Amino acid sequence: MAKTKIKNTRRNKRLLFYCIVLALPILQFLIFYLYVNIDSLVLAFQHYEIKDGALGYNVTFAGFSNFINVFNILKSKPQLLENSLILAACELLIGIPLALLFSYYIYKKRFMGGWFRVLLFLPQIISGTVFVIIVKVLLGEALPYYNLPNLLDNKVEVTRFTLIAFTLFLSFGTNVLLFTGAMSNISPSLIEASELDGCNPIQELFHVTIPCIFPTVVTFIIMIFSSIFVNQMYLFTFALNNDRLSTIGFFLYQQSQAKGGGLVPQDATVASFSTLSAFSLLITLILFPLSLGIRKLLTKFGPSAR
User: Fold this and answer.
1) CA–CA separation, 104 and 117 (whole Å)
2) Crossing angle of helices 96-107/113-125, nearest 10°?
3) Mean pLDDT value across residues 217-232
4) How many domains does the chain have?
5) For the whole model, what pTM was predicted?
6) Are the CB atoms for 183 and 161 separated by under 8 Å?
7) Boundaries of domain holding 245
8) Which residues on neighbouring strands pair with residue 261, listed in sequence order?
9) Residue 285 belongs to a domain
């Protein structure tokens, strides 16, 4: 009887501990996502019409008509989704592998590895806006034939490549810093054991290092997928306004700021944003299960150090 009571007490203490730990993130979700966005969630299913000869609006239930408008926008502007997916694919297939290779080079303390670590992190120390100004001056003065605004007319692909390369470059330092930090936590005895077993550096990278830091890799992959529809590819910072280069994130920013054009009329009020609210809600409904599913698949089928 006494042992059962002790077990119940321990179980209750564990349950209380878990509830306390989960209370903060749940409270943050309820306040900073659900409560803050409750008007936007409701707005996605509403339709506003200006009253005839009177101030105010007639509010009606719109059903899913705002969501149909979103699909019509994506159908009429396929480049929005295309550019967003291209950028995410480049971050996933180019940015992360290159960051892993450079991080491994620095982790193994090869020639000038420490210098590369500092150099690659410099873009994070300097403001991204300042870096854009530097790049625009270099392209406009040192290489006038490569001036981005002038390329938009006939060489959109070159401009897109430049913007993607710039986006990858600015995030590269953070990726390298975090990957090298994760690699530094690998047990030296594990590395020594692999070397005694005859592993060369490439085998050590794929069979020891990456499995040990794979949770960090999973985090970066999830971040890339979760930012597919919000990444603006620095179009605003470069002051480039071209439909052929626009991403979904930049399009949403443009439409929310527009006056007398796009989805927001000249007399824009909160009542004008029904379609934008539906757009944002649809993005959430897509990305939330997608992020959870990707995390589950990578955790289940990805390499493990165990």
Assistant:
1) 11
2) 130
3) 90
4) 2
5) 0.80
6) no
7) 77-257
8) 264
9) no
